Amino acid sequence: MKNFTQFDTRTLADSLIDKALACKASPLEHQEKGKGKRLGLIFLNPSLRTRVSTQLAASNLGVESFALNMDKETWALEMQDGVLMNKNKVEHIKDAAAVLGGYFDFLAIRAFPSLTNKEEDTEDFIINQFIRYSGIPVISLESAIRHPLQSLADMVTIRENFQEKRKPKVVLTWAPHIKSIPHAVANSFSEWALGCGHDLTITHPVGYELDEQFTQGATIEYDQNKALEDADFVYVKNWSAFNPYGKILKVDENWLLKESKFKKNSKARVMHCLPVRRNLELSDEILDGSRSLVQNQAKNRIFAAQAVIDSLL
Ligand code: CP
């Protein structure tokens, strides 16, 4: 594994899940492994879980980590090649990434999409510029189109909470929101759930179809109640429209997940990557009730990151 930016193969995913569970059982077992290594965490957007869990994971392996809020603490970066830099951007990504590549053994990058430039977002332009110019391994801390560390933690959480021999039935459901939200978590969850062989149904209002490159093999169900009927896991997430790109569409039905929607399903566990807007995206009663796995997911972010850093070491 050279970089960790997306689902690769089921074999690799299974081995990362196994490794994450081994790290969870014994987090400090390989504390000497990363001695003398340095990880740079570069944030172009805010974070709580990703930042802290990745730094804890590095620390568990003896790796020294440094976090930089690129948007606030360093020079404004020009990302486009070949431009005349006579406006407000002070440093070019080509120079900054090469400098960081000389300082660190690996980089981790968070770079959200613009949600205005579909072509650039879809080709994951910013993280690929860091990969291109840093010359060292890069871990995605959420890019324009994927959030693989979150998805790995989600797959670990499903593995821990499903003991049956059959495939788990997993439902990804759209949830309401007031802002235009990226597709990365939903795309990645779909990519990893399908890649890991789960039986995936995606339910959302008409118009909220995700980019098909991430959903091939999933069942699309526009009736949320029907989708929930026999789910083992329900993953709740908002995303903006992919067509028209980044827009919020008018939705008449009530998509907020409440306990009353589980009358026909007592067993389903509910997941969300957090942060969550309570009672807008997901109800208090679900978040605070026995179905909720959200704290397990957040905890597993440490061990997912530890498994990835360990593999890169
Ligand atoms: N789930 C997640 O990525 O959380 P943060 O945005 O707080 O890192």
TrEMBL record:
Swiss-Prot/TrEMBL catalytic activity: N(2)-succinyl-L-ornithine + carbamoyl phosphate = N(2)-succinyl-L-citrulline + phosphate + H(+)
Record's keyword annotation contains Transferase: yes
InterPro entries: ArgF'-like, Asp/Orn_carbamoyltranf_P-bd, Asp/Orn_carbamoylTrfase, Asp/Orn_carbamoylTrfase_sf, Asp_carbamoyltransf_Asp/Orn-bd
Enzyme Commission number(s): 2.1.3.11
Binding site for carbamoyl phosphate: S47, L48, R49, T50, W75, R110, H147, P148, L149, Q150, C273, L274, R301
Zinc is among the record's keywords: no
Residues that coordinate or bind N(2)-succinyl-L-ornithine: E142, H177, K237, R277
Swiss-Prot/TrEMBL GO biological process terms: citrulline biosynthetic process; L-arginine biosynthetic process via ornithine
Pfam families reported for this sequence: OTCace, OTCace_N
Pathway entry: Amino-acid biosynthesis; L-arginine biosynthesis
Domain Aspartate/ornithine carbamoyltransferase Asp/Orn-binding: start-end pairs: 185-311
Domain (Aspartate/ornithine carbamoyltransferase carbamoyl-P binding): residue spans on this chain: 12-160
Molecular-function GO term, any one: ornithine carbamoyltransferase activity
Gene3D superfamilies: Aspartate/ornithine carbamoyltransferase
Enzyme type, top EC level: transferase
Keyword terms of this UniProt record: Amino-acid biosynthesis, Arginine biosynthesis, Transferase
Role description: Catalyzes the transfer of the carbamoyl group from carbamoyl phosphate to the delta-amino group of N(2)-succinyl-L-ornithine to produce N(2)-succinyl-L-citrulline. Is essential for arginine biosynthesis.
HAMAP family: SOTCase (MF_02235)
Complex formation: Homotrimer.
Family: Belongs to the aspartate/ornithine carbamoyltransferase superfamily. SOTCase family.
Listed name of the protein: N-succinylornithine carbamoyltransferase
Organism (species): Cyclobacterium xiamenense
Gene: argF'
